[in-house]
Amino acid sequence: MLRKVITYIGYPALIAGLVLGLVGVAYAAGNIDSTYKWAWGTNVGWINFNPTHGGVTVYSDHLEGYAWAENVGWIRLGTYTGGSPHTYANTTKDNYGVNRDANGNLSGYAWGTNVGWINFHPTHGGVTIDPATGSFDGYAWAENVGWIHFKGTGAIAYNVVTEFRPPSPQPIGGVIVPVNRLGLLVPWLGLVALAAVGGVLLLRARRRSKP
Fold it and tell me: Is 118 left (phi over 0), alpha (psi -120 to 50) or beta?
């Protein structure tokens, strides 16, 4: 009897878990290129924007996640998580982070325990993301360690590049709106999961009703 109950519950849970896992991976993983992931600071060394057990995610209006600096540890790009549209106010320690405008200009602050605040739009500097290529460029300013550079082309070339690309705009009633393909897929995945669970429950009910 116990085995039947476990099996009865297990199939729907397994199906739902697989669907949720697919959706979760899409949002949880960072989207910085696995090769082009390095920034450089003279006083901090290399900064990895796609490290193991961390990673930075670039969204259309903000950044999330953690970068790893070999000499100073973790750097957090923002306090918000979840990937929904968001703008950091940068007024308290609970709502700081890096914002991104429609042209790829970054602003706001990241934070590292050992480096303090990192300004992505300082005087005489600034960081951008090319909307076409995803390439970071420019300088951020860390209050305790100085300049952090996102693209070098000298003897040792380095760059941070996001795999994020703005979705293709689609006209609806004469208005151009961006299409979030993953957002369109998620409801269908939910329907598939519900249909699968319903099918399993119906099959179990029929088997139990047989004499």
Answer: beta
The H-or-E segment that residue 208 falls in is helix 181-209
pLDDT in tens, 181-210: 445 455 556 666 667 766 667 667 666 665
120: nearest Cα among 62, 51, 43, 162: 62
pLDDT-based confidence at residue 141 (cuts at 50, 70, 90):
very high
3-state secondary structure of 12: helix
- The candidate with the shortest Cα–Cα distance to 129, out of 112, 150, 153, is 150
Q: Which of 168, 170, 165, 181 is nearest to 131 (CA)?
A: 165
For residue 86, what is the DSSP state?
-
In the chain, where the domains are located: 2-26+181-209, 32-163
Burial of 9 (0-12, 13-18, 19+ CB in 10 A): exposed
Instruction: Give 134's DSSP letter.
Output: -
| Parallel/antiparallel/unpaired status of strands 169-172 and 73-76 | unpaired
Say what the pLDDT of residue 165 is. 66
Q: What are phi and psi of 173, to 5 degrees?
A: 60, 35
